């Protein structure tokens, strides 16, 4: 009986011990990744001509001609398609790196590996970079995690020469770890870290009059959290700006028992007269706030 009691007490202590050691684990992990970034992250990618960026932006958008994703088709493979009419297959050296990045980070067969933890397929990493590079104004990210997507957006801002990324995570542990991971990253000066619950953070941004040219939504994928973001976008996103929802095209959306419901939250919460679907790549959907914000389609 005493042995069983001790075993039960030990089992009960394990979750407590694990949670207590969690910050230390991520501290060490962040320092190790930061060292690898400092030693291995290239500083001098081939860059596109900045004059050509303005020319390409003026050409308008290519709207994806493929049929939109429906709830019953969530999970359908969607390769990368460009939204801006740039020459060649990739925009610049960093975009080309994303297009050929090794896969398998964190044991996920589709996840790119550029030295930072995260869950992005090649197609959506390329799309995120494209939108940030050709966009204007600052960028907002919900869901920092370990800094993978922040590094991609930061590189786009660095290469275009302006703008700032504001990235927010509800976890102080993840936010601090991402800051350590990116401490020596060449894009670090363009990245500002925040912590807090997404709706409350967005309300503060709105109260301060902040607007953005791109919003990347990759925090908790529940219906309530995603819907709360979608209904606030008209007050956060500039006319002509973009929002990219990660895991919109997720087969889990079809499972009533699964908590991930990004597709349904976007369907119900995003103003369809104000926003138009531009494309779906991998799991992510990109919408543009129409430039005149009154329902007139943008150039295609």
Provide a descriptive summary of the structure in words.
This protein is of the alpha/beta class. The chain has a single domain (about 1-290), classed as Rossmann fold (3-Layer(aba) Sandwich). The protein is built from 9 helices and 7 strands; from the N terminus they run ααααβαβαβαβαβαββ. Strands 3-2-1-4-5-7-6 form a 7-stranded mixed sheet. The protein is globular.
- Unreliable parts: 295-300
SSE-based structural type: alpha/beta
- Based on DSSP secondary structure assignment, what is the total number of beta strands? 7
Strand content: 5-15%
CATH topology, what is it called?
Rossmann fold
Judging by the overall fold, what is the CATH architecture?
3-Layer(aba) Sandwich
Range of helix content: 25-40%
- Output the number of helix runs: 9
- Our Rg estimate from Cα atoms comes to 20 Å
Largest pleated sheet: 7 strands, mixed
